[in-house]
Amino acid sequence: MNKFRLPFSNGQCRHHSAIRVWVRAFLLSLTLWTAAWAGPDAKAQSEFMTPLRVGITPAIIGDRYELIEDWRAYLQRRLARPVEFVPRDSCSETMSLLRQKRLDLAWLSSSAYVYLARFHLARLLATPTYKGRPFGRAYLIVQASDTKTDSLPQLEGKVFAYGDVESFAGYRFPRFELRQAGKNVNSFFRKSFVTGSDQHVVEAVSDGLADAGSLDGFIWDTLSISQPKLVEATRIVAKSPKFGLPPLAVRSDMSRDSAQALQRVFLQMAHDPEGAELLRRLNFDGFVADDPKLYESVARAMPTLDAP
CA-based, 20 to 30 A from 94: which of 19, 109, 165, 268? Predict the structure, then answer.
């Protein structure tokens, strides 16, 4: 019986074996090169296939559930991906979820954003505009019947209502002002308490549960439209210098493509009828692109922060 013989010599076999090794190495290099170039796009595609998880708190948007649902549906249509709003009772809880990457996007207080950004735990996406500007102010309010108080130092020994403990206007700014005046923030007021939201600050002062309180002026202005009788029972004593309004921030590892797609939707809201109507209900004009400089005054009022 004839033995099966290869149609080439041993030298030829070694030559073809070397070719096979070279081809395999070339294909592996090509695969790795392609993956390196496609990496960011692949990550973005993966992100777009999963629900967008959006964190919100009463301190920012209140309890307007119908508005929240309409906004969720709007974002879902514009992004062509599922959107889930994740409500929490406090900004601290929302911050924690964003830090743990269990949220993709969150509407944070100005000081919460500064804190997370300082430790590279979140990235600024967009800032809302009110009356054409991306700035807000803290309002110091008292009961309307109090016609004598005209500054924070005059409230020594009074009962004071804060908003959320992570709110700049509703918590950090008045305490910063007291420290600047050389006051002990823990003993200055006879009693102080945290209400959990800016609207609740207005309610506490209006109902006589507190002599005074501090909140984001945008919220007071909005309530003066939606609930004028509530606001009429209070009086603005002082307004802070301007600072960046509470921004939208994304988790630190979100792909650039995904972040840009999100940003485009928010920046274009004012330019389509449905988006413009949602903005009207939110009492905003629109959103502007990320600009960390808007929050420099907030950062100056928060000089020392402990890492999480």
Answer: 268
User: Burial level of 87, CB count in 10 A (0-12/13-18/19+)?
Assistant: middle
Query: How many alpha carbons fall within 13 Å on the CB side of residue 231?
Result: 18
By the 8 A CB rule, do 136 and 168 touch?
A: no
- pLDDT, tens digit, 9 for 90 and up, residues 293-305: 999 999 988 865 5
Give start-end residues of each CATH 3.40.190.10 domain in the chain. 47-134+244-300, 138-240
> Kind and range of the H or E element at 123?
strand 122-129
For residue 275, report the phi and psi dihedrals to the nearest 5 degrees. Answer: -65, -40
Pick the CATH number of 138-240 from 3.30.365.10, 3.90.280.10, 3.90.660.10, 3.40.190.10: 3.40.190.10
pLDDT value, residue 64:
76
Task: Give me the architecture of the 47-134+244-300 domain, per CATH.
Answer: 3-Layer(aba) Sandwich (3.40)
